[in-house]
Design brief:
Distance between the termini: 26 Å
Number of helices: 4
Oligomer: single chain
Radius of gyration: 12 Å
Structural class: mainly alpha
Helix content: 55-70%
Largest sheet: none
Length: 88
């Protein structure tokens, strides 16, 4: 993978670190074997958009897209969603 999420990514600011964590959590939720939802393709598109924003340095947008993905996979009331939402 040749994007900012490649191994060895250096999170220079709180903002890009938050975006990285948000995307990581979204990917974990997407890959969870228990997830068998018809909205899974929407969750994947949100992750792709989050990574694209991260690559462009749009960290706030990357976090927002990752949260949208989490909303599809784990729901807005899950602990994972709330923890990521609280990251600043």
């Amino acid at each position: 993978m040749g994007d900012a999420l490649s191994l060895g990514m250096n999170a220079n600011t709180v903002t890009d670190a938050v975006a990285y964590v948000a995307i990581h959590q979204a990917r974990l939720a997407y890959d969870a074997p228990a997830v068998k939802d018809p909205m899974l393709s929407s969750a994947k598109l949100c992750i792709d958009d989050a990574v694209a924003c991260l690559d462009r340095g749009q960290y706030s947008a990357a976090r927002d897209w990752a949260l949208r993905s989490l909303a599809y996979t784990v729901g807005r009331f899950s602990d994972v969603y709330r923890r990521v939402e609280e990251l600043t």
